[in-house]
Amino acid sequence: MFHNRMPRYEILSADAMETLDRGWRKLMTEIGVEFMDERALELFRQAGQKVVDNTVFLDPEFVLAQVAKAPREFDVQARNPANSIHIGGDSMAFGAVYGPPFVRQGDVRRDATMSDFRNFTKLAQSFEVMDSAGGVICEPNDTPLDSRHLDMTYALQTLTDKVYMGNVVSGVNAADTIAMSSILFGGRDNIVKTPASIQLINCNSPLRWDDRMLESQFEYSTAGQPVVLTPFILMGAMSPVTIPAALVQQIVEALSGVALSQLINPGCPVIFGSFLSNIDMQSGSPTFGTPESGIGLLCTGQIARHFGLPFRTGGGLTSSQVPDAQAGYEALMTMMPTFLAGANWVMHSAGWLEGGLVAGYEKFIVDIEILQMMHAEFTPLEIDEASMAFGAHEEVGHGGHFLGAMHTMERFRTCFYRPLLSSSDNYEKWMRTGGVDTAHRAEKIYQKKLEEYVAPPLDDAIRLELEEYVVRRRAELGD
Asked: How far apart are CA 67 and CA 49, in angstroms?
């Protein structure tokens, strides 16, 4: 995983932070947050919070006391210990796109399948820069709805040896993920001691936590598995249009979710989540890779650090329908502030297209290139006597060139970043090799990676136990 040791970009002044602080406290106490689960309401009642119907009016000092119980940093284990990750501090971990019902492969846009899910899982395993395949990389529409989570979790556990995300569609699905993780890691006690999955719990913005998300949150927090409490805010639709108002709402939603997890299981790991962008005020469509989302992302990093919480945000987001120039520059507009803010858990790092409706094969490779370049750009520069290269000047002299200098010959293989995808051929050579554009080069790369893929080893007894669990649960669920 990547350690971002570059300085953080602090966008908010002390006065701005104070104004936001007054704002979230007012919203939390006077408007409150809805929790559509009686267990959650009862926990808040027992903690002395005002509950009216499904709305909880939270005391900000109580919430801050709960937030203080959450760990600032924690580990998540992978079945290959070399791929385990650390959440918090200067650590950044990257997962693939999450949730699209459709797939784009070349010129074809179609329903996603289980085969696609497995392919994206293999691609995530194949690139070192990816710390996780994620969770619902795409929604496999050719498998039964009630049991597809079993197939997806099994694929994540067997086709990769990296950290994966748990299913959150229902409490039942969450319990299945926990049970399968317990099999993979040798018992529930082992995953309670060191978490084995990360789960996305989305707020139904504005200011409502729905029953399905809360069911999953109860399961995972009880088992000590980290949850990413994430407001889903598109400014102008799920929040007011101003960035400060969206930030205030985001704080209220995220912290209220954190408080609930600490009531469920004090000290359990959580991540301050953010998914903040805006809509097109002409069409009403969601937009991504916008300046406003970038500003919100930078603010979120500073806010999460203020509360002492690890945070999730960013990715390679775009509204583009295809892996074109728009897809590239919008993805970079999201990924650059992700690094400047020092996000700890980054979803949607590879493959996101069409506002998250589509998982794109070629876009996956474009994003891998961006991510690798960001790793290189955010690695601190080493400055020492050797890097001053005084001897090279002595050798070359005035008016010469350094191509054949000993200093160059000793370093030419590693001195500069070598692109995975980009072309720097001159026009004549580019034409002789077919005049292939970025999307078609990306197509060749992902196809080659899938051809070369080798599954990571897994103990046969564990594989068999997982398979038996999937078969048994599929039958119990009626599929």
From this structure: 15
Task: Give the ranges where 57-111 is alpha helix by DSSP (H).
Answer: 60-67
**CB count, 10 Å around CB of 300?**
28
96: burial class by Cβ within 10 Å (0-12, 13-18, 19+)? buried
Integer Cα distance of 220 and 450 in angstroms: 33
Here the tokens at position 82 are: 């070399």
The contacts of residue 196 (CB under 8 Å, 6+ apart) are: 76, 77, 163, 181, 184, 185, 190, 225
| pLDDT, average across residues 23-37 | 98
**φ and ψ at residue 223, rounded to 5 degrees:** -85, 5
**Contact status, residue 289 vs residue 331, Cβ threshold 8 Å:** yes
**Number of Cβ atoms within 10 Å of the Cβ of 49:** 18
Cα–Cα distance for residue pair 375/369, rounded to 1 Å: 10
Structure tokens at 217: 């949150």
Provide the pLDDT for residue 479.
77
CA distance 1 to 132: 10
- 134 closest CA partner among 180, 165, 160: 165
Instruction: Name, in order, each residue with C-beta under 8 angstroms of 33's C-beta and a sequence gap of 6 or more.
Output: 55, 56, 58, 207, 208, 209, 252, 253, 256
Residue 5: per-residue pLDDT? 96
Alpha-carbon span 54 to 134, nearest angstrom? 32
Coil, strand or helix: which one is 198?
A: strand
4-14: per-residue pLDDT in tens?
Answer: 999 999 999 99
Q: How many CB atoms lie within 10 A of CB 194?
A: 13
Sign, CA dihedral 140-143-147-151, equals: negative
Phi, psi (deg, nearest 5) at residue 57: -100, 105
| φ/ψ of residue 393, rounded to 5 | -65, -40
Contact indicator for 11, 292 with CB cutoff of 8 Å: no
For the record, the structure tokens of 201 come out as 């719990």
pLDDT at position 335 over 80: yes
Q: What is the pTM of this model?
A: 0.97
Distances 280 to 222, 230, 285, 295, 317 between C-alpha atoms, Å: 40, 22, 5, 17, 15
Type of residue numbered 304:
A
Q: Which two tokens stand for residue 423?
A: 């072309």
Confidence of residue 395 (pLDDT cuts 50, 70, 90): very high
What are the extents of the domains in the chain? Answer: 2-9+67-377
Topology at the third CATH level for domain 2-9+67-377: TIM Barrel (3.20.20)
Query: Among 471, 477, 469, which Cα is nearest to 183's?
Result: 469
In DSSP notation, 328-371 reads HHHHHHHHHHHHHHT-SEE-S-S-EEGGGTEEEHHHHHHHHHHH
311-312 and 270-273 beta bridge pairing: parallel
Asked if residue 206 has a cis previous peptide bond (ω within 30° of 0), the answer is yes
**Which one-letter amino acid corresponds to residue 292?**
E
**Does the structure show a pLDDT above 90 at 338?**
yes
Kindly tell me if the per-residue pLDDT of 375 is higher than 90: yes
